[in-house]
Write a structure and sequence with these properties.
transmembrane, polygalacturonate 4-alpha-galacturonosyltransferase activity, 7-stranded mixed β-sheet, alpha/beta, golgi apparatus, about 550 residues
């Protein structure tokens, strides 16, 4: 670009470098323009020319380089100089949004044939020359079809997981059978637990008494052995294991043949407690035998379920609430602890899906301040899924009786590891309150709550809870796959509450080692032949895939 001033100073010409195109030509009348004015004009032009050059370059780069006159260039650059741009792209987007809104408001035609992939859709669009509206309609139909298929797959996965969690793995079933057979044929498996000289210890309050109610032999052994291994004074530990009649022989044989000395273990079946009669537990008898209740827990879980208005997480919670264990007497036994152990003052009640990692003797030193139940509250904590439970998560507050007596924002607490003051408990009406609300829920056809034994306990222990530090009891390892591993290592008790139990195939692989390491230690310590059954129990016609999945290759060499 060149600037030419005539010798007479009467004309000013701006031309391109090749000289063929005059971009700007100004004629100056000598009598009307002074040199000062001309000088100022040149300065202004010198300031503007770089911007003109930049805009020209932009137009050229955009492919608009065929202008042969200043008029053409002005038409190209004028809108840019004035701050306006071509809005054809924005109009296209607005038109597309308008089409999407129209398609969203219309019904998808019945019987529409949909392609199986996006590539097929594009190919079909090209071949049939679809307009934008038809393309959007087909795309919407494909997305809704995929969403339905994904939901159906998710619900099927949840149902299969529920059945897996409710069933007994073949390896554990065979373990119980083998031990029952051992009980009938081996006198050592039938020896008295504990030995006669230790019977007074069972009611000695200077010892630390643990109560465990379960029909899972393998889980019970993990709880007991983890407690002994973690204790600073294992000789002060007494375990009271309560099981049902069908499991009693196998449970007794296991602990008779595998003593956990110096700790003391007592194994009793529910049939051996004189207090557990139909007269004393009429409500639980009704819960266990009521046809409607049994059908709810054992029947078709999809019958009457409106899956179209249910989220997968809500459906999973409903399935968990229908676990058959919730109508088992073993699951309700904790409400009768003062009557089952009339000579004890304090006990720690444990679930069978926990692992103890620290000495628990300090629990007996906690001052409960006149309360009955020392428990971890579950309404506050870093894990918003596990530690966000209030009464509204367990009760149906549309029920008038629930709305009248309960506060939806009241903090919930956890079963699984609780320190109970039985002396204080005996002065309360906790058991009567528990029975009353169970009856009311039965009358309402289970419309007040549907999640097992915790809801009535939340009501019965209302005003009798003493919160203890959360580090005593870490929950969620049976349903929270994102459990903080470092916090789990530091917790005194870790709890696999939820469906993904560590002894099941559906257990979380990265959380299972906390549980399996207990039996690996037993194996290394050279226990009896029964310990080997934990790793490779076989039944007739059992496939390798039916065996509990623990790899112990090389364990004996460590």
């Amino acid at each position: 670009m060149q600037l030419h001033v005539s010798p007479s100073m009467r004309s000013l010409t701006i031309s391109s470098n090749n000289g063929f195109i005059d971009l700007m030509k100004i004629k100056v009348a000598a009598r009307h323009i002074s040199y000062r004015t001309l000088f100022h004009t040149i300065l202004i032009l010198a300031f503007l020319l770089p911007f003109v050059f930049i805009l020209t370059a932009i137009v050229t780069l955009e492919g608009v380089n065929k202008c042969s006159s200043f008029d053409c260039l002005g038409r190209r650059l004028g809108p840019r100089l004035l701050g306006r741009v071509d809005d054809s792209g924005q109009r296209l987007v607005k038109d597309f949004y308008k089409i999407l809104n129209q398609v969203n408001a219309e019904e998808i035609p019945d019987g529409i044939k949909l392609p199986d992939s996006f590539n097929q859709l594009v190919s079909k669009m090209k071949n049939n020359q679809y307009d934008a509206k038809t393309f959007a309609l087909m795309l919407r139909a494909m997305m809704e079809k995929l969403e339905r298929e994904i939901r159906e797959s998710k619900f099927s996965e949840l149902m299969n997981k529920h059945f897996a969690a409710s069933s007994i793995p073949k390896g554990l079933y065979c373990l119980s059978l083998r031990l029952t057979d051992e009980y009938s044929s081996n006198a050592h498996a039938r020896r008295q637990l504990p030995s006669p000289e230790l019977l007074p210890v069972l009611s000695n309050n200077s010892y630390h008494h643990f109560v465990l109610s379960t029909d899972n032999i393998l889980a019970a052994s993990v709880v007991v052995n983890s407690a002994v291994q973690s204790s600073l004074r294992p000789e002060k530990i007494v375990f009271h294991i309560i099981t049902d009649k069908k499991t009693y022989a196998g449970m007794h044989a296991w602990f008779a043949l595998n003593p956990v000395s110096p700790a003391i273990v007592e194994v009793k079946g529910v049939h051996q407690f004189d207090w557990l009669t139909r007269e004393n537990v009429p409500v639980l008898e009704a819960v266990e035998n009521h046809h409607g209740i049994r059908n709810y827990y054992h029947g078709n879980h999809l019958a009457g379920a409106n899956l179209s208005n249910t989220t997968p997480r809500t459906f999973a919670s409903k399935l968990q609430a229908r676990s058959p264990k919730y109508i088992s007497l073993l699951n309700h036994l904790r409400i009768y602890l003062p009557e089952l152990f009339p000579n004890l003052d304090k006990v720690v009640f444990l679930d069978d899906d926990i692992v103890i990692q620290r000495d628990l003797s300090l629990l007996w030193e906690i001052d409960l301040w006149g309360k009955v139940n020392g428990a971890v509250e579950t309404c506050k904590g870093e894990d918003e899924w596990v530690m966000s439970k209030h009464f509204r998560n367990y009760f149906n507050f549309s029920h008038p009786l629930v709305a009248k007596h309960l506060d939806p924002d009241e903090c919930a607490w956890a079963y699984g590891m609780n320190i109970f003051d039985l002396r204080t408990w005996r002065k309360t009406n906790i058991r009567e309150t528990y029975h009353y609300w169970l009856k009311e829920n039965l009358k309402s056809n289970l419309t007040m709550w549907k999640l097992g034994t915790l809801p009535p306990a939340l009501i019965a222990f209302k005003g009798h809870i003493h919160p203890i530090d959360p580090s005593w009891h870490m929950l969620g390892l049976g349903y929270q796959s994102k459990t903080n591993i470092e916090k789990a290592k530091r917790a005194a008790v870790i709890h696999y509450n939820g469906q993904s139990k560590p002894w099941l195939q559906i257990g979380f692989e990265h959380l299972r080692p906390f549980w399996t390491k207990i039996h690996v230690l037993l194996f290394l310590q050279g226990g009896s032949w029964l310990i080997l059954l934990v790793f490779g129990i076989r039944c007739e016609n059992t496939r390798d895939s039916d065996v509990f999945p623990i790899d112990v290759a090389g364990v004996g060499r460590q």
